[in-house]
Amino acid sequence: MSDDLKIIKKKYGEKMMHFIRENFSTLLDTPGLVSSVMLDTFYPTHSLYYDLVSDSERNKFIEFIYSTLNKEEKPLVDTGKSPKELMNERGYILKECTSELKIQMYKKYYQKGEELCTFYGGRLNKARVFFAVKKNVNEIIRENFKNPEREDEYGTSVISIQFSKNGSNTLSIKNRYNHTVANPDATFSNDLDNIIPGLTKSFEDFYGIKQIYSQNNFHLDGYVRANDGKFYKYKTEINNVYFCADNIIIDNFEPIFYDKSRYLVLDYFIIDFKKKAIFSSFVKREELPSKLGKIDYLERNKNTVLMSSNNKSVEFTFNEKKEITRVKCENLDNLSSNFLCKTYSIDYLELKGTTKIKDYFLHLVHIKSLNMPDLAYASDMCLTSTSAAHINMPKLKYAGDNFLERIRAKKVSFPSLVKVKNNFLFNSLSLEEIYLPKLKIAGGDLLVNTGLTKVKLPELVITKEKLLYHNNFLKRVYLPKLVKTESEFLTESLALEILIVPNLREIDGKFRPCSENLKEVYIPNLRSSYYEFNMSVNEETKVNLESLILAREVKNTYIRDYVSNNIKLELISRGYSRKLKRWSMNSNRFGESMINYYESSDHYEINELYNKNKLKVKTVVLTDGEVNKNTTIIDYSNSVELNGNKYAVDRVEKSVIECDKANFVIILKLVNLDVMSTKSTVSYFIIKEVDVYLRELNSINIKRVRRIVMNLLKNNLDGVKRVFDINNVRDYECTSVNEYTYKLTKIK
Description:
Blueprint: H1 3-12, H2 14-23, H3 33-41, H4 48-51, H5 55-70, H6 83-89, E1 92-97, H7 100-104, E2 127-134, E3 158-164, E4 171-174, H8 199-207, E5 223-225, E6 231-238, E7 241-244, E8 248-251, E9 254-257, E10 263-266, E11 269-272, E12 277-279, H9 287-292, E13 297-300, E14 304-309, E15 312-318, E16 324-330, E17 348-352, E18 356-357, E19 369-371, E20 377-378, E21 390-392, E22 398-399, E23 411-413, E24 419-420, E25 433-435, E26 441-442, E27 454-456, E28 476-478, E29 484-486, E30 498-500, E31 506-508, E32 510-511, E33 520-522, E34 528-529, E35 532-533, E36 535-536, E37 542-544, E38 559-560, E39 562-564, E40 567-570, E41 577-584, H10 588-597, E42 603-610, E43 614-617, E44 620-623, E45 626-627, E46 632-635, E47 639-642, E48 645-649, E49 655-658, E50 664-669, E51 677-678, E52 683-687, E53 689-694, H11 702-715, E54 740-746
Parallel strand pairs: 16-17, 17-19, 18-20, 19-21, 20-22, 22-24, 23-25, 24-26, 27-28, 28-30, 29-31, 30-33, 31-34, 32-35, 33-37, 36-38, 41-42
Antiparallel strand pairs: 1-2, 2-3, 3-4, 5-6, 6-7, 7-8, 8-9, 10-11, 11-12, 13-14, 14-15, 15-16, 39-40, 40-41, 42-43, 42-44, 43-46, 44-45, 47-48, 48-54, 49-50, 50-53, 51-52, 52-54
């Protein structure tokens, strides 16, 4: 092995040595040539070979080395046109920013969370700044680009062209996506001629900006070329400052080497062991140094650094690339968006004593494990895209928008969580089990696109749109207290089998479960559904929608192939024939509402219509909103007819029960009687309201009254045996008072 190859093996690794031997055999005949050109152009790193991932990049590398040795510069294209003229031909409006105010005028083009560091201020001290905006920029919408690429239409619709002011005029072309994509500061490979031929020469002629190292047209992702002509591999970039391994920082393309005996550069932090201090001056308002305060204790072991101040402490664990991989903090509270904001290699984060995190806390930082035992409040855009597989937040009560998107955990538990805003656990496809026993209020897109097979939210009362949207594995849903939700409830939940929502009263929008596997649907109190009510069921499906009142705005298909307790319903979209084979309704008002809605229908037919107090028999035909004159309405005041049998109804408007032990009167109101089961001898009805009238309001505790009422109804039914079937009293989940069965007696 030649000395050249030995040097390359030591500095760049064995793989790179073999690559050099295979591709530069002729050059190796000249001792010291290849190793010197490598050391002059690439700061030593063993990852260089692996970073040349494709054959095309390796070919470009070979061409670059030969061009460096030949030192023959390619002639620049000269169009004689100004940069503004050339950019105009390419569809851009180009302007130079000569003041901070002019720079800020371009911030409006950037999505929140994707703004350039240039907008933080002070860039004009180090660079000449230009912005180029596509003439049709308003037609290029961020939401249309779900998988961003650096040179796609959106990414290049607004670009910032910046030249360093240190004599080299080193060029950086910054992307509209910013760090949402890889190497956003090397758009068009930092070659103006890649935008339009002749642009490099035009900037030189019209603005006096002549670039050094501009003509080799070589660019490698993850590397920056400094003013010394060398390429440096960097970990992260912040405001035109590149943080590299080996205690090196490239500031405005000027390399700074920090003494390893005194300093340690971890990500964008500089730790000074002599002064016992940690700095992050390149990131404005980075909170860690200020939250930690003056360091009393600072110690470094092999791959850990421990800092402490009073009762506060921070422990970093780092890898051989000097990237922080684990963080443990104690008693750091009210942490915001700038806390560890550029530490992209963290696997584990532990925050003990942290009760609150603010907007954009660790936004787009892909942490794998989160341990926050004291966290109670999380603001908007916190911990998005964490990829966390393990999460511990037992005290969390409130979470803002986009909290914990795209996690990889299979099980999560938030035993204290009461309220969440939009996109909670959004797109968490690995999620199979969830525990939210106290969640009451949720925003839109709750648990969208997950791997859940069953959902039980026992306290959830109200949500916005897209509740449980697009859950292809979801089979069982139990929401006992949900009262209101909005459009797209359970839409595209194709595997749904059981839906139990006993207190849901309003769906403000579309309801489209879209599952053909439904076995049981229980929504007995639904009163309105706007725009669309669409549910596919089969002959084995049990459906309870007895209080349903569809809003006039409903236009599309409602229920297809509906069969439940010998009740068959077929309603087709508006403007076509409608047939109601047999339907159990709760009140006359419901029937009237249905009739009023179908005033404009072509044809509507009712074969049998059962109401609480009235039975409509024979046929009701609605044509152009008119009721057939032959319609027969029979009023049974003391009996009803079911399945050909007539039943006596022991129905009383008020049943008064007086109790000597307490000074109050219980009045049972028998309302909203729903058929629960039909047998040959007995059908049971539900009492849905129990009113308690107090004789001496000031002397009676309402909670005590409610408790006594429950005990009375369960255990002391002697006074109402003629009304209740005491052997069949059951408890049902209800919004207020427990429900009980009411007995019908068959008339011989």
